[in-house]
Amino acid sequence: MTLLSLLDYGSVLIFALTGALVASRAQLDLVGFAFMASLTAVGGGTVRDVLLDRHPVFWVANPTYILIATSAAVLVFFTAHLVESRYNWLVWLDSFALSIAVAAGAGVALELGQPPMIVVLMGMITGCLGGLMRDVVNDELPLVLKQVQLYVSCAFAGASVAVLASFQDLPEIVVLAACAATCWGLRAGSLLFGWQLPVYKSRPPRN
């Protein structure tokens, strides 16, 4: 099993848990849990593979990914009531999944010899779109759009570090570990310490 496959497995599992936690907050049935978990788990990677023209898409080539997502959904369905502060679990699990998925997306693009801009974009897409789909389908304000927290910026920084590290001819595991660590460190700092970038503030029109 390759490192990129392990990263995909990890991001699928953890993103699936977040999707199932959202389903528990919405009080969906078991099929709804499985749908939300699977959508969140494979959404970003699916868009990545389609844009990079990877055929078949990773979870079509290996349906084990869907099995993992649905198993996570079943687990959460029967245990979510035991968890206090499910939202805190959601945002922290999401931070781990984001970091792993950004590394997976950037790694796939690097393996295919894509230029730096595409590597960064694929990392961001793989990391962010699954959670975005999850929150939009559940009619919640997406985590990626909450102005008081870094999110997409973390994905951008992590993928950019992967590009810079790849120029140093470092081993793949070092490149992708640096990517994931950067992304998660910034996201954790945002959650714990309120780190954020300046935001646009509109001004009243001049008379």
TrEMBL record:
All residue ranges annotated as the Glycine transporter domain in the record: 6-80, 92-165
Localization (cell): Cell membrane
Main location: membrane
Assigned keywords, A-Z: Cell membrane, Membrane, Transmembrane, Transmembrane helix
InterPro entries xrefs: Gly_transporter
Pfam families assigned to the protein according to its UniProt record, in alphabetical order: Gly_transporter
Recorded topology in the membrane: Multi-pass membrane protein
Coiled-coil intervals, chain numbering: none
Ranges that cross the membrane: 6-23, 30-51, 57-78, 90-110, 116-136, 148-167, 173-197
Family assignment from sequence similarity: Belongs to the UPF0126 family.
Protein name (database record): Trimeric intracellular cation channel family protein
